[in-house]
Amino acid sequence: MSETETLFCIGCGAKLQSVNPQEAGYIPANTLKKYQEDSSEPELYCQRCFRLRHYNEVTQVPLDDVHFKHLLSQIGHEQALVVYVVDLFNFSGSLIKQLQHYIGKNPILLVGNKADLIPSSFKLNKLKNWLQHQLKTAGLHPIATELVSAKKLTNIDDLLTKITQLRHQRNVYVVGTTNVGKSTLINAIIRAHNGWQDLITTSNFPGTTLNEIRLPLTDGGELVDTPGIIHKNQISQFLTAKELKYLTPQKEIHPRIFQLQEQQTLFLAGLGRLDFVKGKPGSFVVYVDNQLYVHRTKLEQAADFYQRHLGELLQPPAEADTFPPLRAQNINTTVKSDIVFSGLGWIAVPENVQLQAYLPQGLQVEVRPSLIN
């Protein structure tokens, strides 16, 4: 590549280079030379994106969250429509509390993605109202809210109509944390209008998009995919790339109902635990990935059971030696509640029960009024 020519990967946005295979944007020199000799092919992918797309191989590269936040803050210096994508299955892990600080006075169109994962028993209007309330509590005030499934193309046309109504020929920036489905959403928009298939690289691996990816709109503006902000203290940091599938379900969640009495325990594989300490017997409904193993046992046996079976029966994680210890959080409910396990899902529990919820050290369990009564 000549010093005057700068090329970027269409899949992740990284600046292409042929010097260091361990850094972002690496592409073999012969591939780059072939492109420079005949640039009629518009899709130029770095080696990392190529392997991810064709072989599902994940190559880790250094991620600079400071750089990502700097890119996000540039939005505040222009007039734009901000499409803020959150994960309906993992809302707390997709909340950017300082978003308004980064984007200035630009309006926010809130998009709740992965609606296809939410059980059909949930009323979408109630879910939308809950989502709007959560944003308001965080100090954010979206001008509109849409629920979509980027993967299944559900309500994409409605979202496009809303974007057209609100953008007023401004650039559209799609923002969010890692793994909320921003790139999948943009691919769905591109597919709906141009017929191109999955132009932008997507995966379950955090940090797939490494730089802005700018796509022209028909009226001269741009649709911009931005790198996902890295949410600190997420359970994903303790899992391998193969194990991340348990944090990113691909199908509608099937609730699993357990009739529990006090002094019983539920294990969410080896990643989390809920102890029913005291209260009337009742239904505990587990909403996690359908493949994640859920085990019930007696509370008095729970600690020994976990120690003996972590990494075997209770997996993920596959490596018990490197997984941090679980730490308890005391919970007392007064109404039907959801006990939210960071990135894993949640367990709906009865009112007036005394519980202990466990996650790896450093992570917090959240409690909210139940989304379904």
Descriptive report:
There is one protein chain. The protein has a six-stranded mixed beta sheet, with helices on both faces. It is globular. Helices cover 22% and strands 24% of the residues. The chain is α+β, with helices and mostly antiparallel strands. It has helices at residues 29-37, 47-55, 65-73, 99-103, 124-137, 156-167, 182-194, 299-309; strands at 80-87, 108-113, 144-147, 171-175, 213-216, 222-225, 256-260, 264-268, 272-278, 282-288, 294-298, 326-332, 337-341, 345-349, 354-360, 366-369.
Q: Could you list some keywords that capture this structure?
A:
373 residues; 8 helices; 5-stranded antiparallel β-sheet; 16 strands; alpha+beta; 6-stranded mixed β-sheet; single chain
What is the arithmetic mean of pLDDT? 84
**Oligomeric state as shown:** single chain
Major sheet: size, sense and barrel closure? 6 strands, mixed
- The helix-and-strand class reads alpha+beta
Indicate the overall shape.
Answer: globular
Query: Which percent band covers the strand fraction?
Result: 15-25%
**Which residue ranges are poorly predicted, with pLDDT under 50 across at least 5 consecutive positions?**
195-208
Give the proportion of residues in helices.
10-25%
Order of helices and strands: HHHEHEHEHEHEEEEEEEHEEEEE
The total count of helices amounts to 8
Topology:
Layout: H1 29-37, H2 47-55, H3 65-73, E1 80-87, H4 99-103, E2 108-113, H5 124-137, E3 144-147, H6 156-167, E4 171-175, H7 182-194, E5 213-216, E6 222-225, E7 256-260, E8 264-268, E9 272-278, E10 282-288, E11 294-298, H8 299-309, E12 326-332, E13 337-341, E14 345-349, E15 354-360, E16 366-369
Parallel strand pairs: 1-2, 1-4, 2-3, 4-6
Antiparallel strand pairs: 5-6, 7-10, 8-9, 8-11, 9-15, 10-14, 12-15, 13-14, 13-16
